[in-house]
């Protein structure tokens, strides 16, 4: 297909970019800024043309805030997912499918690589080269459809079935935290038992519910789950996992979480948005250290960006392309995210979200039994508490981020978030008066339906 | 000496059309097809009378009548009622003994039927919840593009690209299509996407039933070549060329059953 | 020959709401419970009147419930939420305390919604997904203790283990008697139908337990008088149907009615409102944890994921029951957005195909709009079974 309509990074940017820091990987290797530049301008446009689309409706466009090095480095890390994960796996690191909205410390502590559904999708995507946007979307749909056939058309979360069972993606283990956030995931995990790929190990890391963090036995049970988990991954990785391994990993991940919290607080404190929505979101997410399948890489990029954001906020620099006084939206709910580009065109910006932020902003106690500490922290995720508690935490984030409105989005077929949506929105309205809107997204795709965007736009206009 | 000639009829009253087939022993003797009205008894009789007229026969000449389709429940003219699923199986088997799967896409529903070498149903599945794969869905799409229903297939086959459709639900697909048109995508390419999305979605239905060649494609949508091609691609199968109007297959099966039942009941030997 | 006791039970059910009302005026409390692993004996032993909340079949309530929860929740849960909103159901009106469990997460969410919008006093029992792990069992035992503590708080008394023992004995007897009655419906020349037994099972969710047991004994005696030796075997004219999948609660008769109207004969089930929860419940220790664990050790509910297909007890039990009741085909019934069962439909079908048992999947909700389409499918399925049986008979002849 003709590639004339693909985006190109301005060549004059090269020198400035190449002066920025290298990305350090977990295995000790690194990629200099020059390596990144070369890949992003020479190689990736050929291998992954869809990512360079300029189509106005596509949500996968590259960030245009080119003076923010993390923007380019983040895309680099996403587009090299297949290369890197394939290599790490060949070097003996088992790859584990996990859930979104959970932390990944124990997986890495045991020598594995943890990928949430979206990241597994990215890895699978990286294995198909040369596709334009339409072709890539058609590929994804076809693949997903296979999972629906094997599981159910009402399935939303298929636990990577389409890639792992039908697509030959060499995932070693499917072991998400179950019950957290999503009701579909445990059935998705179970569905693998009738798939053709018998080599993949299955495990549910069972997240107890209802006042879970206050129940000693629930914390204990979850800690036991985590022990079993690290033990199983250790077996795959061929190593014994000590408490010390976990403690170390917790400290490392706490650093990411702290940095993300600081970055968020800086971002929220600024009068003018220091980045666009796409970059803001990826910066916050890097604190969870899952997004790139390499915690060290995420951490180096996040550290460097933190300094940039600080600078921009201090000098009152606004991100390119964002309007002066955008309407500030906060997004609640799982698995769907509005198209930032379109939101910004409409004069708004997304300032935060509850999903993922709930786990990233929960620090883990560093002294004492690491399994107990981790279990306690995880069972305390605000997103997973009763409606009143979740709402209280959300309201705190709304205040910090100075949000003007709340969008609650959930995916068609999602039983869990859809059931909470109204209660949460009613509580927020009751306690703050901030307007809320609930939207159901009907099936995925790179271009969000006009219907969804129209509703979001109407909401923005109302605000 | 002249043996008495035996005629058997099958009458299939569907949501869009009523069909009748008259069989004389081993071959189709006459057929009738009329649009369905509000009264299913009348529609069935109209189709039957049309077939009788073509055959030059009277109702009394028929040894046995089997009713099928939605109208089977109230078909006073029939000796027996049998579901269209069993009838489709018999009909397809009668015409093409090598057929093992029937894909039927009608006005209101769509079904997959797997049959054995005797034309007995082994498994089947039916979709009526979601409009994907039904005539209704394509009608809506024809409305969006302002083209005739029968021209949809050809238009889609002229596509140069495949525009991904994320939804096969009529309501959502309609609005998605409208926005794709507004974004300047070509109708043929969008339609190509729609046909493929439907084929993919309904192939799930068939996956559960287990698809075995040969395949017989019946129902009103079977006349849409774009759909036929998309299904062949999605399921990696070849669809047999029907020897009669594929819409008549249910009525034909009913006639075959009429012959079998009457024999069993000792009405002829 | 109608079974006279069934008529008595029908009458008793009519009077029950008023009777409950009286009992409550005299200070007794009704606990409305729902969830596959709620250990009902504990509720009973604490002096509460347990009533099971399982209603369905009313599309209007589903619509109402969807406004509080969402249209993506299973129809059963939506109906329950809708019923609390409308508060018209004579039994729901009588509930003082609610006890839900987290076997199915939709049930768990419903508890939250009902608590939030209708200000009900709700107790929730946590259920482990890793129910087959020792750690999972231990967690569940502790949850049962907590569940008991919360109930004790509301009862104002502590659980007396002697009373718990009595409740267990009573419930054990009920389960045993139900099982005996159940085999009569599947017999050749049966004197009681599956539908009648199904109603009988569900009557136990609402009636006083002691009285219920007496009525069951009476029913069994009547059956034994009519049929000394029930033999379960395939009869040429039947299409013996087994119902599996999502629950069919009180008020939801669509599927059952259609099956019988097209000439199918239901001979067994493994649904949550049928016989299954009453089977294989073996209480080894008289304590909250002991009772609860026995519940957890029964045939697991589909909402509890089990990761190895070969040793799956749910499928094993299904096979056993199919053989026991000589079923010729399975109707796998799933309610809209009931993921626990819907996600396993294809798998169940594939597994049963290996034993050459035909399966028809029926995915439905409480609206009547799909009545005709369901009828066509069910009728075709019955035709298919009969034709198969006939040709098998021809071959053997
Ligand atoms: S949208 Fe809901 S059901 Fe779907 S994956 Fe996300 S949390 Fe799970
Ligand atoms: S098992 Fe199915 S019907 Fe029952 S509560 Fe769960 S989703 Fe609803």
Describe this structure in words.
The complex is a heterotrimer of chains A (463), B (269) and C (397). Chain A has helices at residues 14-18, 33-47, 69-79, 81-90, 105-109, 117-126, 133-150, 161-164, 185-191, 216-237, 243-269, 277-286, 295-315, 340-345, 357-360, 370-379, 387-401, 416-432, 450-462; strands at residues 23-24, 30-31, 95-97, 113-115, 173-174, 177-178, 201-202, 205-206, 327-332, 348-353, 405-411, 436-441. With 463 residues, chain A is of the alpha/beta class. Chain A is built from 19 helices and 12 strands. In chain A, the strands form 4 sheets. In chain A, strands 4-3-5-7 form a 4-stranded parallel β-sheet. In chain A, strands 10-9-11-12 form a 4-stranded parallel β-sheet, with helices on both faces. Chain A has a two-stranded antiparallel ribbon with strand order 1-2. Chain B has 8 helices and 9 strands. Chain B has 269 residues and is α/β, with parallel strands linked by helices. The model of chain B has no long low-confidence stretch (mean pLDDT 86). Helices cover 40% and strands 21% of the residues of chain B. The mean pLDDT of chain C is 95. In chain C, helix 3 (59-68) packs across helix 4, helix 6 packs across helix 11 and helix 10 (254-261) packs across helix 15 (371-396). The longest helix of chain C is centred in the last third of the chain and has 26 residues, at 371-396. Chain C has a domain at 14-160: Rossmann fold, CATH 3.40.50.11890. At the A-C interface, helix 9, helix 10 and helix 18 of A face helix 5, helix 6, helix 13 and helix 14 of C. The complex binds iron/sulfur cluster (SF4) (2 copies). One iron/sulfur cluster (SF4) is lined by residues 74, 76-77, 104, 106-107, 246-247, 303, 335, 338-341 of chain C.
Helix content of chain B: 40-55%
Strand content bin of chain A: 5-15%
The largest chain-to-chain contact, stated as pair and per-chain residue counts, equals: A-C, 50 and 47 residues
Helical region count of chain B?
8
Radius of gyration of chain A: 21 Å
The total of beta strands of chain A comes to 12
Beta-strand portion of chain B reads: 15-25%
Strand order of the largest sheet of chain B: 3-2-1-4-5
- Can you give the mean pLDDT of chain A? 92
**Distance, first to last CA of chain B:** 16 Å
Instruction: For the largest sheet of chain A, list the strands in their spatial order.
Output: 4-3-5-7
Spell out the CATH superfamily of the largest domain in chain B: ATPase, nucleotide binding domain
| Biggest sheet descriptor of chain A | 4 strands, parallel
Shape of chain A: globular
């Amino acid at each position: 297909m003709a590639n004339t309509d693909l985006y190109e990074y301005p060549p004059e940017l090269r020198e400035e970019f190449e002066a920025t820091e290298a990305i350090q990987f977990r295995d000790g290797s690194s990629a200099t800024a020059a390596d990144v530049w070369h890949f992003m301008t020479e190689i990736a446009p050929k291998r992954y043309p869809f990512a360079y689309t300029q189509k106005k409706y596509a949500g996968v466009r590259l960030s245009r805030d080119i003076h923010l090095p993390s923007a380019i480095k983040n895309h680099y890390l996403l587009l090299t997912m297949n290369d890197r994960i394939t290599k790490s796996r060949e070097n003996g690191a088992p790859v584990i499918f996990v859930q979104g909205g959970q932390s990944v410390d124990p997986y890495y502590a045991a020598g594995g690589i943890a990928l949430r559904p979206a990241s597994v999708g990215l890895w699978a995507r990286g294995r198909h080269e040369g596709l334009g946007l339409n072709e890539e979307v058609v590929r994804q749909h076809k693949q997903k459809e296979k999972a629906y056939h094997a599981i159910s058309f009402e399935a939303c979360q298929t636990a990577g079935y389409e890639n792992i069972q039908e697509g030959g993606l060499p995932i070693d283990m499917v072991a998400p935290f179950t019950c957290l956030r999503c009701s579909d995931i445990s059935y998705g995990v179970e569905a693998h038992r009738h798939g053709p790929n018998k080599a993949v190990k299955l495990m549910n890391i069972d997240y107890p519910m209802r006042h879970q963090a206050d129940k000693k036995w629930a914390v204990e049970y979850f800690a036991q789950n985590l022990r079993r988990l690290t033990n199983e991954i250790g077996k795959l990785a061929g190593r014994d996992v000590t408490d010390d391994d976990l403690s170390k990993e917790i400290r490392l991940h706490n650093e990411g979480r702290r940095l993300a919290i600081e970055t968020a607080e800086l971002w929220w404190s600024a009068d003018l948005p220091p980045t666009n929505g796409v970059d803001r979101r990826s910066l916050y997410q890097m604190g969870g250290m899952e997004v790139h399948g390499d915690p060290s890489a995420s951490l180096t990029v996040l550290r460097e960006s933190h300094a940039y954001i600080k600078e921009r906020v201090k000098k009152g620099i606004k991100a390119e392309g964002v309007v002066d006084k955008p309407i500030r939206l906060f997004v609640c709910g799982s698995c769907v995210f509005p198209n930032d580009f379109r939101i910004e065109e409409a004069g708004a910006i997304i300032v935060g979200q509850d999903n993922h932020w709930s786990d990233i902003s929960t620090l883990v106690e560093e002294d004492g039994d690491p399994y107990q500490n981790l279990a306690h922290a995880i069972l305390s995720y605000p997103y997973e508490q009763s409606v009143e508690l979740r709402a209280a935490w959300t309201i705190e984030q709304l205040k910090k981020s100075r949000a003007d409105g709340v969008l609650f989005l959930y995916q068609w077929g999602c039983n869990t978030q859809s059931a909470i949506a109204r209660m949460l929105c009613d509580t927020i309205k009751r306690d703050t008066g901030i307007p809320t809107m609930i939207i159901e997204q009907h099936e995925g795709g790179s271009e969000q339906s006009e219907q969804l965007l129209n509703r979001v736009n109407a909401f923005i206009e109302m605000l | 000496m002249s043996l008495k000639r035996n005629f058997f009829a099958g009458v299939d009253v569907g949501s869009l059309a009523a069909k009748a087939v008259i069989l004389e022993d081993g071959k189709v003797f006459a057929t009738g097809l009329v649009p369905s009205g509000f009264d299913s008894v009348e529609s069935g009789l109209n189709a039957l009378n049309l077939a009788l007229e073509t055959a030059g026969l009277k109702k009394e000449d028929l040894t046995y009548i089997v009713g099928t389709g939605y109208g089977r429940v109230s078909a006073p003219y029939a000796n027996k009622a049998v579901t269209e699923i069993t009838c489709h199986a018999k009909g397809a088997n009668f015409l093409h003994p090598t057929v093992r799967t029937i894909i039927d896409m009608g006005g209101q529903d769509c079904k997959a039927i797997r049959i054995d070498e005797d034309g007995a149903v082994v498994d089947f599945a039916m979709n009526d919840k979601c409009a994907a794969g039904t005539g209704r869905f394509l009608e809506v799409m024809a409305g969006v593009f302002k083209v005739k229903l029968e021209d949809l297939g050809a238009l889609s086959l002229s596509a140069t690209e495949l525009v991904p459709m994320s939804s096969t639900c009529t309501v959502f697909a309609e609005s998605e299509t409208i926005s794709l048109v507004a974004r300047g995508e070509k109708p043929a390419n969008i339609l190509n996407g729609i046909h493929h999305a439907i084929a993919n979605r309904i192939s799930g239905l068939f996956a559960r039933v287990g698809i075995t060649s040969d395949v017989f494609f019946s129902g009103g949508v079977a006349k849409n070549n774009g759909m036929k091609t998309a299904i062949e691609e999605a399921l990696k199968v070849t669809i047999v060329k029907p020897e009669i109007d594929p819409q008549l297959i249910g009525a034909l099966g009913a006639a075959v059953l009429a012959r079998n039942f009457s024999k069993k009941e000792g009405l002829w030997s | 020959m109608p079974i006279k006791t069934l008529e008595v039970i029908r009458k008793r059910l009519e009077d029950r709401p008023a009777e409950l009302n009286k009992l409550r005026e005299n200070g007794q409390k009704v606990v409305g419970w729902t969830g596959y692993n709620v250990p009902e004996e504990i509720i009973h032993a604490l002096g509460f009147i347990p009533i099971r909340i399982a209603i369905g079949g009313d599309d209007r309530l589903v619509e109402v419930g969807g406004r509080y929860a969402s249209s993506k929740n299973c129809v059963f849960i939506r109906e329950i939420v809708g019923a609390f909103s409308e508060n018209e159901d004579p039994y729901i009106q009588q509930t003082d305390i609610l006890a839900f469990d987290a076997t199915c997460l939709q049930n768990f969410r419903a508890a939250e919604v009902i608590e939030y919008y209708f200000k009900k006093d709700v107790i929730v029992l946590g259920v482990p997904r890793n129910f087959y792990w020792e750690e999972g069992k231990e967690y569940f035992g502790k949850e049962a203790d907590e569940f008991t503590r919360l109930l004790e708080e509301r009862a104002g008394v502590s659980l007396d283990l002697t009373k718990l023992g009595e409740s267990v004995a009573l419930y054990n007897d009920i389960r045993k008697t139900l099982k005996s009655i159940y085999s009569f419906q599947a017999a050749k020349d049966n004197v009681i139908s599956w539908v009648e037994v199904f109603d009988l099972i569900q009557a136990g969710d609402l009636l006083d337990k002691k009285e219920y047991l007496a009525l069951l004994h009476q029913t069994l005696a009547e059956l034994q008088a009519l049929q000394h030796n029930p033999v379960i075997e395939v009869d040429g004219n039947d299409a013996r149907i087994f119902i599996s999948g999502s629950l069919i609660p009180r008020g939801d008769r669509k599927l059952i009615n259609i099956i019988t109207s097209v000439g199918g004969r239901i001979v067994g089930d493994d649904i949550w409102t049928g016989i299954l929860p009453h089977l294989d419940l073996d209480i080894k220790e008289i304590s909250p944890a002991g009772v609860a664990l026995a519940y957890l050790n029964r045939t697991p509910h589909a909402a509890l994921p089990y990761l190895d297909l070969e040793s799956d007890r749910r499928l094993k039990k299904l096979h056993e029951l199919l053989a026991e009741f000589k079923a010729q085909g399975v109707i796998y019934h799933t309610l809209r957005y009931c993921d626990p069962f819907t996600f396993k439909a294809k798998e169940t079908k594939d597994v049963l195909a290996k034993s050459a048992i035909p399966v028809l999947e029926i995915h439905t909700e409480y609206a009547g709009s799909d009545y005709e389409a369901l009828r066509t499918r069910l009728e075709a399925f019955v035709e298919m079974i009969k034709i198969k049986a006939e040709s098998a008979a021809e071959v053997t002849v």
